[in-house]
Design brief:
Largest sheet: 7 strands, antiparallel
Shape: globular
CATH topology of the largest domain: Rossmann fold
CATH superfamily of the largest domain: Alpha/Beta hydrolase fold, catalytic domain
Strand content: 25-35%
Number of domains: 3
CATH architecture of the largest domain: 3-Layer(aba) Sandwich
Number of helices: 13
Radius of gyration: 24 Å
Length: 584
């Protein structure tokens, strides 16, 4: 089937602002369902817009594909771009426009990766009757809990990179239409992006020079986000924030174990299954979780090759990401009886075993919680400590923070996302390491991992970071999952400074995983107080991190006696006795 491409088509919003779209559609004069993607990254930038669904293939399969620049970006009108603020209303209006066109059957689906996944959720929240299904991939949910903030710490690496590299260049040119006006600042911006590791060390962040704090036409959202270090009305309203009761269309949610937005995707699935606005959406929303990092659907993630079955080009040796989504939309928008309703609610990839598995829910049934205790002799074991043992201590110096080494990242390429060898940070004096004996049988961990840390600091505030790792037979250590908590926001709601030296109990969410660790390998837990520049540095002084101009060292103590037994809790689905049994 031949395909027509219409460029820069005006779509008027309710306030008269014209957003422009490119349309790919069959050249047959018939009416077809419409697939809508709304992007801030340039509708013509195919490495992003076609990353998970090829619009030409979709058009050849009988869809009209509308790829639209969101408000204030690229070809679309609007003032200064502000993330997510207008996407619910603009998404609703764009769905309505798509449904009304003479090439449209009146049925619309929304799809897209990352921010475009967010626009899909927000369009669905708009509640237009024409919207029949969505397919958001690695999409945000709660602004503060698991997007630009996590555990009270600012996702500085993501926010700075996104503002400067993804949004900044077009925003700069848009506000300075003549080359003589934008050439010099654009050159400086590129130099700042290239010098990312140095520029993110500047203090205070409220005067972060690469973002031009006095230029309201550039990236003002960078500085606005800093003003919300605890959840408030803005953080609850700006994004989706668990509004699944307003969504009536079923969702195909695509996630990655090493993705920046993993927790958001899992929350979306749980919210849809429990609270979606229709029985159809509650019953038939689906979750697919691969071993991927953000925007990377290949089999090699970080330093680990998960095998060809994990690659987004040939999922489980059956189909690619485009075909999987077209099957989804074929059923919900065309009424094709293709077995979509019979697919398992959850399809997850078990790392280590490197196989896909179907489950009827998330988290899967039958997991036993295995506590692993952090012991004074640097051992990690299932038996709780008894008696009095001294705490383990280290000095956290924010002038020399522990560098980022893998994880659920969205940062410049020099910071590898996913599982990477932890050798660069293991010798550091500000990284505590607790290691188990070799496993006597393979151990399968599937579900949410949590740490319970009893700790004290000499500061008025500080951060605690915990990593669960696998130690392979060759001695290399690879991160599995991790978490962070800013001590002053330990309740996840408000800011309360510490009494220096007082022991506090911290619950740290390490997010979720599915992994099989073979016999002979070991588990390792790392504890530190910084992961920079992934997160901003806590100055330890009690001053808000983004306002700090002075950094103080702090003495950190981690406790592991009978009354204050620091531990991690693993959801074990097989091999619970690999370390001697599940302790009661």
């Amino acid at each position: 089937m031949s395909v027509i491409v219409d460029k820069n088509i005006d779509i008027a919003m309710r306030d008269g602002t014209r957003l422009r779209a490119d349309i790919y559609r069959p050249n047959d004069g018939d009416r077809h369902p419409v697939l809508l993607q709304r992007t801030p990254y340039n509708k013509e930038l195919w490495p992003i817009t076609a990353m998970t669904l090829d619009p030409i293939r979709a058009a050849a399969a009988g869809y009209a594909v509308v790829i639209q620049d969101v408000r204030a970006r690229w070809a679309s009108e609007g003032g200064v771009f502000f993330p997510y603020r207008d996407e619910r209303d603009d998404g609703h209006d764009s769905v309505g426009w798509c449904a009304a066109q003479d090439f449209s059957s009146g049925r619309v689906g929304c799809y897209g990766l990352s921010y475009m996944g967010g626009t899909s959720w927000l369009a669905a929240r708009g509640g237009h009757a024409a919207l029949g299904a969505i397919s958001p991939t690695t999409a945000p949910n709660d602004f503060w809990r698991n997007h630009f903030w996590r555990g009270g710490a600012l996702n500085l690496g993501t926010l700075a990179m996104w503002a400067l590299r993804a949004i900044g260049p077009a925003a700069l040119i848009r506000s300075r239409p003549e080359p003589a006006q934008f050439f010099a600042p654009l050159t400086q911006l590129i130099d700042d992006v290239d010098a990312f590791a140095e520029v993110v060390r500047s203090l205070p962040l409220t005067r972060f020079a690469p973002g031009h704090p006095d230029d309201a036409s550039f990236v003002p959202f960078f500085y606005e986000f800093l003003r919300h270090p605890v959840p408030d009305d803005l953080t609850r309203s700006l994004l989706f924030s668990d509004a699944h009761a307003e969504v009536k269309a079923p969702a195909l949610i695509i996630a990655g174990w090493h993705d920046l937005l993993l927790a958001a995707d899992l929350e979306h699935f749980a919210g849809m299954r429990a609270n979606a606005g229709s029985e159809l959406a509650r019953r038939h929303s689906r979750l697919v979780i691969g071993p991927w990092s953000h925007g990377m659907f290949q089999n090699v993630v970080g330093d680990v090759d998960f095998g060809f079955r994990s690659n987004g080009l040939f999922l489980d040796l059956k189909e690619d990401l485009t075909r999987m989504q077209l099957r989804w939309f074929d059923h919900w928008l065309k009424g094709v009886d293709n077995g979509v309703r019979d697919d398992a609610p959850v399809k997850l990839f078990v790392q280590g075993a490197n196989r896909w598995r179907d489950e009827d829910q998330w988290p899967p049934r039958g997991a036993e919680l295995m506590p692993l205790y952090l012991r004074a002799d640097a051992q990690l074991g299932v038996q709780p400590p008894d008696g009095e043992t001294p705490p383990t201590s280290f000095v956290y110096d924010p002038k020399d923070p522990c560098p980022t080494c893998g994880g659920n990242l969205l940062m410049p390429a020099q910071y590898s996302a996913g599982p990477v060898d932890q050798a660069p940070i293991l010798p550091r004096r500000d990284v505590l390491s607790f290691t188990s004996p070799p496993l006597t049988e393979s151990l399968e961990i599937v579900g949410a991992v949590q740490a319970e840390l009893f700790a004290a600091t000499s500061g008025a505030d500080t951060d605690w970071i915990v990593k669960l790792c696998e130690v392979r037979a060759d001695g290399r250590t690879f991160n599995i999952c991790d978490g962070v908590v800013r001590a002053s926001v330990r309740d996840g709601q408000s800011r309360r400074l510490l009494e220096p030296g007082a022991v506090e109990r911290y619950v740290i969410e390490l997010w979720s995983t599915a992994i099989e660790i073979p016999a002979g390998h070991r588990l390792r837990v790392l504890v530190t107080s910084s992961d920079f520049p992934r997160y901003d540095r806590n100055p330890n002084s009690g001053v808000l991190a983004h306002e700090a101009t002075h950094l103080e060292s702090a003495l950190q103590r981690v406790f592991h006696d009978a009354a204050r037994a620091s531990r991690v809790l693993l959801p074990v689905t097989r091999g619970a006795r690999a370390l001697g049994g599940v302790a009661s």
